[in-house]
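Re: protoporphyrin IX containing FE structure - here you go.
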Amino acid sequence: MAFARLSALLVLALGAVQINAAITKRVTCASGHVTANAACCVPALFPVVDKLQSDLFDGAECGEEAHSALRISFHDAIGFSIHGGKGGGADGSILAFNSTELQFHANGGIDDIVAGQFPVFKEIGFLTAGDFLHLAAAVGTANCPGAPRLEFKFGRPPPKAAAPDLTVPEPTDTVTAILERFADAGFAPEEAIALLSSHTIAAADVVDVTIPGTPFDSTAGTFDTQVFLEVLLKGTAFPGNGSQAGEVLSPLAGEMRLQSDFRLSQDPRTACFWQAMVNDQERMMSQFKAAMAKLQVLGQDTRKLIDCSDVRNAEPVNTKHRGPRSKQACAGIDVPYLKDPSRQKGVVE
Ligand code: HEM
């Protein structure tokens, strides 16, 4: 009897929680935009997003600036260690102290996006370097079809100093070195692979300087799982001037394969995580979003940050792949298809 009464009370209580969760207070800012938190109106974040889209991203394009805005957010945040003694994490130090951090070898090619972002950052004026840089990453990434909406937390203090060198993984690094660096920053191997979903909207300018803009998969303008598949295909040729440091044979003409991506796709510690992403758009989107949410507040006191995620662009559409089968490094998970069946060269059955 007592148990029945308790159960009834529990049902009532749970119902109340659900109703509360469903009621989210919305606020209309002076600009006319609607947000869940009035604090996101005050710093005029909506007009900032419009400015980023027009001045940085060529009118909401998923182009090189959007790709590089994501890359620089990683290079900024990863300068951090959960054990201390490194940089301030996701603090915008790579922008504010760019004359130091751009000297680091691993930041090759980042100079272009710093040159693009710095004047806009200065013109906006009221955002800290960290808030600016990680908002730009969230806005730019969401411009890419298939990409999840990344979180944006507002309120990072200005960076205190440049991050030290040798915090950003390089394509020539061993899997052990890469996983140790990610672990030092607080990421498990599965989260490292989730973050590498970013290479679905990526190209290299400096790995082989003779062929700038060479993409890592055949659909670099779409945030799909294609990179996870194409890295598993049999390599047949180099796209440019022979083999460069950090590059291995690629399966498709005009495509570059990073040695680090390939090794991670084959290593027993990460192969199954890599392979599980193939043709699983939901998995990739949710894991990438979760890992990025962690990355974009590394080193920050999250109790002092305000969730202003809804200042950004809308939720994306899904994409599915079909095509011939490919090589498997992880037994037990079937790798299904290559998106474009006309590009079958190099496929391993
Ligand atoms: C093992 C870790 C990683 C290595 C070794 C690596 C290496 C590289 C290299 C060598 C390039 C090409 C640079 C150039 O030649 O211009 C690149 C591009 C890129 N990377 Fe990574 N990366 C790693 C992880 C990440 C992560 C975690 C992210 C984001 C969360 C990321 C985002 C990007 C993007 C978006 C580009 C393309 C930039 C553009 O097209 O302008 N990378 N990466």
